[in-house]
Amino acid sequence: MQLQFLGTSAGVPTRRRNVTALAVLCSQGKGWFLIDCGEGTQHQVLQTSLSLNQLQGICITHMHGDHCYGLPGLLSSAAMNGRKAPLTIIAPKGIQQWIEATALYSEFNLGYELSFIEVNSQLHHRVGAVTIEAAKLSHRVPSHAYSFTEKTADFKLDVEKLIRDGVPRGPLWGQISKGISVAVNDRQISAQDYLIANHEAEKIVVGGDNDTPSLLGEICHGCQVLVHEATYTEDVALKVGSDVGHSYARLVAEFAQQAQIANLVLTHFSPRYQDHLKAAHCIDDIRHEAQQFYKGNLFLARDFATFDLDKQGQLSLMSRDL
Q: What positions does the entry give for Zn(2+) 2 binding (predicted)?
């Protein structure tokens, strides 16, 4: 799977960063999922090779504007670009009411069906080879994390077991390697019993706004990548106060280290953090704080940065900017 960041700023956009949006691209085909849709997301999509006609689903973590104000415009643009396929939106309950009210009062007709699924901790939604699940987080409004697990057909034959069970070499092995069950001496052989996965399922967890990373413990089981907000460094977070409902770099880094997550991508940075090193608050301050407490593969997201997760669970930066 791949990640392409479309917005990495918290609250309001900056000259270099739009508000929150992230594309998760499937390993197979051109399908992709959108997590959050801050204002201007449709403009960000235009700067990429992503197609709204290939969009498989939209997941909204919570109903703050920097995570959802771009949704009506993006849906309308998809219609005007000829989308006909139904689209699933997984989101808090209020999203459906808001979109339906917007459609009513602005008189837009999408021309394709929207299917709304209310997010909760029991979510288990399957789209092709991708399974989407959710976990409840802690924020000023209800907020969730989403996991994306993709299982691809990449198996090898368990040769030792085939020989031990007397399954003769030849065409039967070929059928089993394709996942086809066969009969041997009037005995039915299940192909799945003789196939070994070459790699673990790819799993990425994307957190919404959240001041308690430990809530991600269960959903992060087996994941190779965690994408989580680090709105502040610890010193700024203490000045801002605990009621804002956000995490800081140390808090996320300590959780990722304890949970033994191989790859951590921080995003959703307060606009006060600038790119130049002489700024009062530099974006590298977030990186340096996280590195003190997390020893895995650490990245700070930038708009349009694209990351690739390989079959061995290693995340790498493919491109940084346009």
A: 66-67, 209, 268
